[in-house]
Task: structure prediction
Amino acid sequence: MVYSIGEMAKQLGVAPSTLRYYDKEGLLPFVDRSGGGIRVFKDSDMGWLSIIGCLKKTGMPIREIKQFVDWCMGGDNTISQRLELIDRQRDAVRQQMKQLQQTLDTLEYKHWYYETAQAAGTCGIHDRMAEEDIPPHIRMIRDRLYKENNDIE
Result:
């Protein structure tokens, strides 16, 4: 089956202008054109477009994505370069996830902190609260946050 740029963009959840931009930047050498020069997408293009979208979501610059596509189009002699690039991005995403988890932990702690303060009518409740009254996962987050940053109020 063949798709117009609008149909393919809709399937991918992106704007048609995104696909035009990718094409302009050389990321879509696999896309065919009709006799009139109109881009014609095939089902098999979906895999290519998905990996391009995935790499873009990792924060990879267009220039590096183009290099990856070029390596893929070049054949098996670039497998090691492709693997290295994927590993580098995977490591970067893991680091981003770690940072996001720390951010979420901080927000979880602050939610508990202000929720209990609101119920008590004062933030001073935490100064008088027994350790066993603090949920274990909140204690763990609090202790880590205090270790990283002495003032979290």
Summary: The CA atoms of residues 27 and 66 lie 5 Å apart. The helical segments are 5-12, 16-24, 45-57, 62-74, 79-120, 125-128, 136-148.
